């Protein structure tokens, strides 16, 4: 399936100008783009809104079963994308068919039972603690000192961890996501912590997400539940942290949201939804595998080919984003949470939204006259084609005492 004009899915343009890059890909290749992953491994990047809807809506033809991949013989044991495109991973990400539906129901039911008022209370408390640690300085980096610390603390509390275990989980998860020398140690810490929590709740249930998952009668093993908890923690933390950071960046750099910085709150939800359309934290997702030869967007897709879900590219597809069609505001037809039976469960979306919105509102409530401390055009993003978030968000404000 390799084509001579395949586009490398790497490089600084994913950091500096992804919107223009996706437009060029669509102009040169259409809605289904041949790309090369690390090590020149071929794949397809689906940028068309309708084509992505087709791929995510047909789990039989476009399967989540990575065993179908026709490139496994070319994948080295140390391939850096293996954690993202693993083989035989016993998690909800790679389960298909009826077993996946049972597993998704277990996760959704456990999250749906979370009390939204209690969850918001946890989010406010942890957010206030983080602001207390920086508010007297008059300046801060809202990524490293705030956004990257908040979601995992709230999720840990909902799952059943004690508050004392929260900081260690924050460090471990951020190390794992960082993908550097501490990544494997972070993954081991997270896995060990989840396994201990599951074992504890198996002996002594409580009113938390883990206990509700263990009470499910579908017969999932403790190992499967540990794997799902790790997926839930990683998928719930980093995109939510980037949702907070990207929304605050928008509100601090766009005059349309100036009123929200001085006491108004109507624009917070609008900014958050605009980010999901225009600057979504999860840009591209791996993936789906073709169960048989087929055609998609005019391309001949072979059995076993890998298709990457171009969420941001589909959100900006000109066939659905015309000049006469303004799709931000209250429109939620974006792909930022995926689509189909493998989309982010609705209760998980609600958890992420409560954490992100609470985090943004606490910043605006607690830090008067907040403003960027650097020129807006100097803000940089992590150089990743997968997740899009700021490397830092320096701000200044009048110092205030901790509560």
UniProtKB/TrEMBL annotation:
InterPro entries attached to this UniProt entry: Cyt_P450_B (IPR002397), Cyt_P450_sf (IPR036396)
Spans traversing the lipid bilayer: none
Signal sequence bounds: none
Similarity comment text for this entry: Belongs to the cytochrome P450 family.
Stored PANTHER family: CYTOCHROME P450 YJIB-RELATED, P450, PUTATIVE (EUROFUNG)-RELATED
Protein's UniProt name: Cytochrome P450
Annotated source species: Streptomyces eurythermus
């Amino acid at each position: 399936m390799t084509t001579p004009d395949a586009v490398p899915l790497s490089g600084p343009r994913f950091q500096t100008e992804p919107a223009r890059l996706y437009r060029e890909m669509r102009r040169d290749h259409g809605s289904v783009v041949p790309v090369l992953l690390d090590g020149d491994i071929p794949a397809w990047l689906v940028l068309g809104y309708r084509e992505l809807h087709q791929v995510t809506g047909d789990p039989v033809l476009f399967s989540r079963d990575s065993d179908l991949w026709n490139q496994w013989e070319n994948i080295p044991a140390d391939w850096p994308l293996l954690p993202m495109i693993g083989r035989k991973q016993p998690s909800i990400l790679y389960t298909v068919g009826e077993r996946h539906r049972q597993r998704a129901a277990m996760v959704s039911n456990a999250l749906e039972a979370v009390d939204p008022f209690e969850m918001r209370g946890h989010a406010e408390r942890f957010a206030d603690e983080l602001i207390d640690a920086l508010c007297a300085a008059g300046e801060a980096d809202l990524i490293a000192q705030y956004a990257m610390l908040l979601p995992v603390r709230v999720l840990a509390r909902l799952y059943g961890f004690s508050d004392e275990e929260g900081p260690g989980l924050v460090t471990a998860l951020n190390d794992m996501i960082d993908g550097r020398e501490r990544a494997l140690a972070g993954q081991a810490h997270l896995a060990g912590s989840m396994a201990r929590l599951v074992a504890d709740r198996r002996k002594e249930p409580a009113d938390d997400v883990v206990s509700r998952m263990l009470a499910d009668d579908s017969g999932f093993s403790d190992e499967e539940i540990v794997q799902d908890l790790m997926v839930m923690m990683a998928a719930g933390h980093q995109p939510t942290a980037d949702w907070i950071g990207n929304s605050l960046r928008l509100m601090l750099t766009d005059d349309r949201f100036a009123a929200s910085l001085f006491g108004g709150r109507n624009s917070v939800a609008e900014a958050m939804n605009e980010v999901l359309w225009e600057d979504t934290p999860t840009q591209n997702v791996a993936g789906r595998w073709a169960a048989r030869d087929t055609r998609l967007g005019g391309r001949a897709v072979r059995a076993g080919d890998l298709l990457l879900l171009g969420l941001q590219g589909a959100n900006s597809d000109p066939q659905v984003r015309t000049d006469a069609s303004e799709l931000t505001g209250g429109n939620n037809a974006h792909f930022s949470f995926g689509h189909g039976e493998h989309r982010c469960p609705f209760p998980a979306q609600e958890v992420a939204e409560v954490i992100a919105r609470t985090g943004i509102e606490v910043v605006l409530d607690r830090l008067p006259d907040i403003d960027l401390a650097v020129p807006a055009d100097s803000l940089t993003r992590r150089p990743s084609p997968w997740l899009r978030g700021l490397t830092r968000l320096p701000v200044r404000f009048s110092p205030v005492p901790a509560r």
